[in-house]
User: What shape does this take?
Amino acid sequence: MTKPKVAVAIGQSNYDRMFSKQAWQQLEDVSTIVHHEGDEPANREELIDLLPGALACITSWGVAQLDTEVIAAADSLELISHMGSSVKRFVSDSVWDRGIRVTSAGITLARDVAETTLGLMIVGRKRIWPLGRHVAAGGWRDSPVWEQWDARELTRSTIGIVGASNVGRHVIELLAPFQTTVLVADPYLTDKEMVSLGVERVDLHELATRADIVSLHCPENEHTRHMLNAEVLGSMKDGAVLINTA
Assistant: This one.
């Protein structure tokens, strides 16, 4: 039985970082792998050369958009497996028109981003950055500057989550031990989900005025672009922390 052809377009400089030896072996066991020869992710012309005859394509950040001409060259393509999260930048309408299936690592990566967000919340609430710069410059606790950066605990803080996405929900889960009050601004969050997550659903303006930390986890689109405008930012508490890992 002939193995299906799988094109790997991520660029060979990313191989060690994105594939384990076990993963390569598992892929080789079930497919014939065709490698993009360049170190960097494939550009448009390289995709056109790489994809003919391939049943599946593995992509990552930096791969060129699979536009109409690329998809036309990919005559056998049935699956795109993206090693990043969002696929909106490089998946064109031609992909959907052909009925090509698309998967991503979004759910897996969400946990990692959520952990980073939690770390930023703790560091931001404790004022680690300005206090660290102050100490590195020779200052210490007896300096008046120290009082300008009043450190606070994450525990029992009010946290505003903008977008109950995969990442946003993981952040809410990680916050559970800290006894926080979690506010969520998300028009798609249902009453049932609100109760299940143990959060309070509010609009963006109320979230901004009440939260000690505002954390963004919504996609960029025509509905969210410029949503955090001067009015919203101006309504935030003095000393509040704004985190954007979206």
